[in-house]
Structure formats: structure tokens, C-alpha cells
Design brief:
The chain has five helices and eleven strands. Strands 1, 2, 3, 4, 5, 6, 7, 8, 9, 10 and 11 form an eleven-stranded mixed β-sheet that branches. The protein is elongated and about 60 Å long.
Amino acid sequence: MYKVFINDKPLIFSPQRFSTLNLLEVNGEESKKKLLTIIEKMEDGTFSSGLEIVSNDIEKIWEEFNSFYKPIAAAGGIVKKDDKILVIYRLGKWDLPKGKMEEGESKEESALREVEEECGVTALKIVDKLPEVLHTYTLKGQRILKTTYWFEMTTDFSGTMKPQTEEDISIVKWVDAEGMKEVLANTYPSIKDLLGIYLIKS
């Protein structure tokens, strides 16, 4: 099963019915053409609540879907300290620290670097791997498929945090369970999805 967010709406690829989203079966020789139509309709908001694609060859369908995009990799972290989670506020939305991987970096190195750069938090330690999140966007006419690799982290950092303003981050703070309600009410669907999985897990 694969899940990707297009225009902030989920598109699920599965070999059998998985969700309660609108369902389409995609099989056969015309599958790539059908996928492009689906992508265009997801982009223009036709499928306003998302869509699930079911196929008897889901790996082939997923490969064809990827052929329409340029891949970009990023990494980030859900950082926990004293039962609080580190969040950032960027461009009107609550978010988690993350950023594009640099050449030669491992996923773990990239995630640690991005959290430190965006928040000014050091002494970070990775304790677990979290599900990757995929979303799409368009840059200069090119469709981009961005995969963000996520890690659960801890820290004993007690210094002053500093938002990376050059990355449009205006606030960095720790939130408890009550504060998380505000975050979940104003964040991206992909981040809300990830936080939901993490909060259930922990």
C-alpha cells in the first residue's frame, strides 16, 4: 500500500479496498493514461476528499505514477522532551522541522541536521524510525514527488531555541497535549496524519 498527498488530499494505492475514500480500479494497458487523468483531477480539486486506487498489479501502477514526477528526498524529526513535542510555525501553519537532504547524507544525518538548523536545538538522539510521508507539488512547471523520512528523537537541550527565519520559520516551541490540539487544528493533512500515527504509537 502507498499513500501520497496531492493538493493536500490523500491518494492511496492498494491491492484491495483499504479506506472509505472514493474508489477507482486501474488495470490494463491504458493504466498510465488513466493515472495522468487522476493526477490532473486531484490537482484541480475534483476529488475533494481524496481517492483510493485499487489494482491487481499495484507495483506496476505505483511505478507508472512515479514516472510523472521528479523525486526529491527530505528528512525531519518528531522531537520529544518531558512529554512535549517540538513544533515550528511557518507561513501560517504549524509544522514539524524537516528539510531537503543534501548529497552524501544519510537519512538520519539529514534529519538531525535539519532539526538543529531550523530550531537551534542540539544534543539530539534518534530513538526510532517513523513512517515516511509523500506529497506532491509543482515547481516551474515540473511535477515533484517529495518523500520525507521521519525519525522520533529525544534531547536534553535546555538552551534558547532559535527559529531559522531564512526558512520562513517564525516560532519554535514545545507543546504539551493541550497545545497539540492547536497544532492539529492548523497543520498540513500529511503532518496531521503523521502526528496521529505517532501519538497512537506513543
